[in-house]
Request: fold
Amino acid sequence: MQFEVMNSPFNQEQTELLNRLLPTLTETQKIWLSGYLSVRGETESVATTDPASKQNESERETREITVLYGSHTGNCQSLAESFFQKLENEEYKVTLSSLDDFKPKALKNVKDLLLLTSTHGDGDPPDNALSFYDYLFSNRAPEVEDLRYSVLSLGDSSYEFFCQTGKDFDQRLEELGGTRLYPRADCDLDFEEPAEEWFEGVFAVLNDSPLSEESAKREVSTHGTYSRTNPFKAQILENVNLNGRGSNKETRHLELDLEGSGLEYEPGDSLGIYPENDTKLVDQLIEEMKWDPKEEVPINKNGDLQSLSDALTKTYEITSLTKPLLEKLASLTPNEELPTILNAESEELKTYLYGRDLIDLIRAFGPWPVTAKEFIGVLRRIPVRLYSIASSSKANPDEVHLTIGALRYDAHGRKRAGVCSGQCAERSLPGDELPVFVQKNQNFRLPDHPDTPVIMIGAGTGVAPYRAFLQEREETGSQGDTWLFFGEQHFVTDFLYQIEWQKWLKKGVLSKMDVAFSRDTDEKVYVQHRMLERSKELYEWLEAGAHVYVCGDEKYMAKDVHAALVTIVREEREISESEAEAYLADLRNEKRYQRDVY
Amino acid sequence: MSKKTTQGTPSEMENIKEKSDYLRGSLVESFADPITSSIPDAETKLLKFHGSYMQDDRDLRQERKQQKLEPAYQFMVRVRLPGGVATPEQWLVMDDLANRYGNGTLKLTTRQTFQMHGVLKWNMKKSIQAMDRALMDSLAACGDVNRNVMCNANPYQSNIHAEVHEWARKLSDDLLPRTRAYHEIWLDEEKVLDRSEIIEPMYGPQYLPRKFKIGVAVPPSNDVDIFSQDLGFIAILEDGKLQGFNVAVGGGMGMTHGDPNTYPQLSRIIGFCSPEKIVEVAEKIITIQRDYGDRSERKYARFKYTIDRRGLEWVRTELNNRLGWNLEEERSYHFDHNGDRYGWLKGDGKWHLTLFIQNGRIVDSRDSEIMTGLREIAKVHTGDFRLTPNQNLIIASVSEEKKSEIEALVEKYGLTDGRQNSALRRNSMACVAFPTCGLAMAEAERYLPSLIDKIEVIVDEAGLRDEEIVIRMSGCPNSCSRPTLGEIAFIGKAPGKYNMYLGAGFVGDRLSKLYKENIGEEEILQSLKPILFKFAKEKEENEHFGDYVIRAGYVERVHSGLDFHK
Reply:
């Protein structure tokens, strides 16, 4: 670090000396020196007068204090607010937040933490501390060796687990490597005095603290060796259903750990996943064909081998039928019905293929007088699934988030599920791994200029990249206006990422939001209806240079949204339909109308 | 006008009320916001005056948070139903609304009205408008105003009931807020901008410091728990004629765990007035509380604390001054129970059937189709329905000819007068608590029935099945089910944990006392068992359980709320 008069308590001459000296010191010398200085500081502090107080002030500017609270009835919150105020009055740099509003990952960067919490019910954290609490006690909790902290806990001693939450936090922070800067105080219902005493104690310690050295930042290799051909095995950190009880939908929110992968992505990019087949299906298939699951079969041209059951789980596709596959399989069975279907009208073939899988086919068109090796020789590899990334890596370093709609349906007498979405919904627990890679998508990018307004239109899981967009804009402090149109079935159960949009609306990261819940009202309302209702304003945004994004279902949503845009431009500009189409084509050419549809 | 003498800065709520433009706030805008099914905190406080609480399904709170969904916000709508009397048409409207917009159930409250739970934001206006068409409203059903006026649900003296109920209705109507906010927001009444007249002549722009409750009792029944009310009127009858009312002031059940400066208190009689003076007396008493109630600390703001700070004599003098005449000497009266009398009763040529509705929950279950049954009864009934203060229901004023038809429906749908239950269960009461009530610390309505199952085993063993013992449970110390007037009472502290109180008077004239703190089911049963057995063995003739536990030394007698915590 380069010292300057501005960022340190030293004068010009001292600064120059230090800048010359410090780079020459070895690590051991630095450690020795800091210890020497801090001990001397202790003994001499009594004698310090004017210059020292000046030193304190500059320390206060650099050493940030974070005050976090968990509060049920508001006592801890008001205490936290008053301590915050006092610290600010002393010209400390202070951050105040409820525990759950505080990004738990940011804990790594906290220097001095004052944590205030009540205990609720039978030793439980208050509601607005629960998520943070769970995070801190999960194995995702970071090491906090640089952290100094003190806990104030409020409780009611008539309860068995008096002040338990405060005790838990206190102990946990220690386990994670933090240093207690002042002992925890457990307060009963008459908390005012002991709380004040605690604060005075904390304050006294803070006043004496030396400037801590910036902890060395971990160097992360940016040279990625993982790719589509060499997917990274990302651990699942979180996997939750975003749809509330009673929903017709199931949308999984996955958080994957990319630490050490070197994988980098930008908002708009997709993540590729190599899924696995459901082993239940694989077992059924093997049993149906009376194969030996342990038989070794080749899985590529290099002759690498896998057991049959592994190969059918991890390598080969067994869940969808295609015309080429049927053609190849027709040669493996004496059954004459199969060629008949193949030669039928294409509509009939399509009808047959729709919703059926390999098990349906082998049951219908046996016998199969072939070996397993021969049979799998005609199968294709499981295709990779791509999902629009729902996170910004700036906001979530080393993580990637996905929004995956679980596909489930009944067809031809059996329950079926999408391969990858089914895997994510039913067979993926935190701790499991998924092979992934980043698929760049330059055609779905935030505007270069952070002040450019954006209009984001998405239904269902189509909202995923907009979560990434807004995280990015929040993280980079962009000033541009943002407008989100979102549609789903029901407000109560299907408002994906609801509390996040609400938070961004409150903070102004999201300027406007319109929602369409198609099944809450007698008449079905979709995003395009909301756009038409806002026709004038939407057109004004376009004229002001807004970029328009559409993400989601191609067949219905994207088509209807495009038609709505045409209508809006035609009516607001009073031009013909083809002129309106041309207007939108221009937007597209200028990369101001971008779509990610599927 | 105001003679505020309490110290301290006004609480945030006072500020909200004052700035609300007579209860309007930004309720219209908040209910139009499509991004959340909630309304802002300050608005929820104003909404109470309109008869509704914002709640959320607490069973789902944590789950939904993980799902990145806001809590399952919903609204509870409480009807203003003076004295708990509803016509069959009104019953059918509430039944329809509960099924159309609510959670498919109705709650008969401890203050004799309907509560509908689970109404989504966008259905609130439709619900209130439907109620309005059936001549019901929810104005002032909650909030810092006079709440629903209770009245004895007297099934056996119908002419007296009609007369007293008329006074209760008049009290309720005359003490309503005068603002047109309710009509503008929910009923699309056009806003008139004439501000030359005083909008709230009695309440003023800040309304009362806290809620205010009035009840009217007709001895010998104290079903309304008259001494729990801020203001109680006890009807005095002579030769079957209504002479007037004893006036009792300063009751209230709520307290805060851990704060001994808060306590339940019973009202005390300060005199007597003739019937036609009842509204005037109520209004003047309300203005005393308006002027002298604590506006800085809401937990000390109820009328009972105002009185206990200044003394009963002060209130009497202040009231007489404001009236310009003096209350008469109190008259004698006698209560002999606060529970309901179940089954068919004949009075004044009509039949009245009191049904046992466990904890007041109208819902179809495997055992009985209460909701369907009452709907079918409402379709043919020509009298009225009376919601009792014990959360039960009276099918009132049934003609001789209709009686068998009603009886057949009662039979068909499994409705009951509760006779097959223990007298303990018939005298039980519980508030809503989880999952909708935001204040609940422990279960109440969902739990008390199963706890009674277990206590019934003890009661049966002790030979006390027909012994009437009043048992009550509240999920928090706000005490909606008036637990400290239960001979056995539970107030929630944490999930599965209750404070247990014993020793209230059987007729609702004495508070109970804390017996055990913060105990779970096992300890509850272990504690009760020996006491009930000893009671069965040692009880004197006509001695009630609440009196016995004092005589036997389990708890001390509570003379006043002031020694409730001692």
